[in-house]
Amino acid sequence: TWTTGNVIEEQVEAIREQVGTKRAICGLSGGVDSAVAAALVQKAIGSQLTCVYVDHGLMRKGETEQVEKDFVAATGVQLKVVDAEDRFLTALKGVSDPEEKRKIIGREFIRVFEQAQAEIIAEAGESGEPVEFLVQGTLYPDVVESGGGTGTANIKSHHNVGGLPEDLEFQLIEPLRKLFKDEVRMVGQELGLPEEIVQRQPFPGPGLGIRIVGEVTKERLDLLREADAIAREELTAAGLDREIWQCPVVLLADVRSVGVQGDGRTYGHPIVLRPVSSEDAMTADWSRLPYDVLGKISTRITNEVRDVNRVVLDVTSKPPGTIEWE
Ligand code: XMP
After folding, report:
1. Euclidean distance between the first and final Cα of the chain, in Å?
2. Which of 99, 138, 275, 314 could form a disulfide with 287 if both were Cys (CB 3.0 to 4.6 A apart)?
3. Domain range for residue 265?
4. CA atoms of 86 and 218, how far apart (whole Å)
């Protein structure tokens, strides 16, 4: 019979056998799948695993800290955090086109990951065991979508952030290959991962970079982070997290509208709320959120976030709208 206990036991044994005394690395995105995969491999091989987390400066408020503190506390994993904010923001300078942004973010991510990987190998020195394995949080639906998968390092381009290069010479460890998302969450829970990680809603690899319509700058990211944190706080307080698939908060950086605050005229940017309900993100419907919750989010964002004077609600299904705006 299927139990999370059985799955964990079986995988731990298989991973130990596969890796032996060698070493493995795992890219963490902050999402559920990579976190659970890492925790499972950590349980099997302990310090033979090193996780790499690339902070591209496009994360939401508190996200990097969550990986650094909560995940490490729960698993005891060896973590390498790479602060790559400057690098990403420099590369994104002057770019507004969504596809171009995605390509740049994917490319920079690969470079940083490769650098981190070389450092890990160098740190081990010549006497160290080779780093031969790469842990991936591939789920069953990913395997089906990509046509069965062959177990070689041919990773889908949307995986984590923009995909890893196809010529990475690693053997893959994919302990979640037979599982669906809800099962992955159960395994994560059993492994003792905190609720905030296990029940996390989907968040795109390119992060807030594709939630700013217009050029991505540090100032705009900070502004969006504030607005997003308020929306998430109020949705959580209203007990709506499980009901909503996810709620992108989007900054229309190239749009301004006139408003009034106190005695003065304002000329600020709109923030879009995009709450959706969905089963698998392939299709989605806009969530009918209670008006009082929407009202509270709107009041708080316009009061607390400088330069934002309007909050609008996206009431488009997917199709025709995608969940993200870019
Ligand atoms: P769309 O916008 O295509 O999004 O309706 C569908 C789901 O995928 C997420 N998404 C991504 N996830 N890397 C990811 O890991 C990406 O580049 C990416 N783009 C979109 C989106 O948040 C939604 O859950």
Report:
1. 43
2. 275
3. 211-313
4. 9
Atom number, ligand 1, closest to the C-alpha of residue 210: 19
Q: Are residues 191 and 220 in the same domain?
A: no
Q: What's the 207 CA to ligand 1 centre distance in angstroms?
A: 9
Among 155, 170, 165, 72, smallest CA distance to 121 is for: 170
**pLDDT tens readout for residues 87-142:** 999 999 999 999 999 999 999 998 999 899 899 888 877 777 888 999 999 998 88
Largest Cα–Cα separation, the chain:
71
Distance between CA atoms of residues 155 and 148, nearest Å: 12
In a domain, residue 192? The reply is: yes
Q: What domain count does the chain have? A: 2
Give the residue whose CA is nearest to atom 20 of ligand 1.
204
Q: How far apart are CA 230 and CA 32, in angstroms?
A: 22
Q: Which atom of ligand 1 is the closest one to the Cα of 246?
A: 24
- What is the ipTM for the molecules in this complex? 0.99
Domain final residue pick, 198, 221, 245 = 198
Q: Residue 137: CB within 6 Å of ligand 1?
A: no
Confidence band, pLDDT 50/70/90 cuts, at residue 149: very low
The region of weakest confidence among 77-81, 129-133, 144-148, 254-258 is 144-148
For ligand 1, whether the C-beta of 323 sits within 6 Å is yes
Q: What is the pLDDT of residues 9-41, one digit of tens each?
A: 999 999 999 999 999 999 999 899 999 999 999
Give the span between the Cα atoms of 6 and 26, in whole angstroms. 23
Q: Residue 50 has what DSSP assignment?
A: E
For the Cβ of 281 lying below 6 angstroms from any atom of ligand 1, the answer is: yes
Beta carbon of 34 within 6 Å of any ligand 1 atom: no
Q: Tell me the best of 158, 160, 278 to mutate to test the pocket of ligand 1, counting ligand atoms within 8 Å of each CB and taking the most.
A: 158
